[in-house]
Every structure is written in structure tokens, then in C-alpha cells.
């Protein structure tokens, strides 16, 4: 049986992929805005690749975004 582990992206990697500054991503998380679904893993923020893709797809399909 094959078990695939999904890659966890860092805040920096999300910033590079989206072009959104790290400070903005942190701010959105702090105020509870509709940003990527970051989770704490130890002391670090991480987001799965699939969660980032889903968030980006929602933003691209939302005319108000």
C-alpha cells in the first residue's frame, strides 16, 4: 500500500508562489481574513500544497477578490 505525504509549504514559499508579501499573509492570518489556511507545526506556520491551490482557485473564481 502506497502512502503519499503531502508537502507542507513555508510562509516564504507561499509568498514566492503567490507574489503576496509575507507581512500581508501574516496580517491576514492575524485578523482572520480569507487567506491561505496556515497551521502551526511546532513553532512554524505551514500550509499544504492542496490547501494553497484550493485557496488560489477560490480567489481566481471570485470576482470580488
UniProtKB/TrEMBL annotation:
<protein>
    <submittedName>
        <fullName>Excisionase family DNA binding protein</fullName>
    </submittedName>
</protein>
<dbReference type="InterPro" id="IPR041657">
    <property type="entry name" value="HTH_17"/>
</dbReference>
<dbReference type="Pfam" id="PF12728">
    <property type="entry name" value="HTH_17"/>
</dbReference>
<dbReference type="InterPro" id="IPR009061">
    <property type="entry name" value="DNA-bd_dom_put_sf"/>
</dbReference>
<feature type="domain" description="Helix-turn-helix">
    <location>
        <begin position="8"/>
        <end position="59"/>
    </location>
</feature>
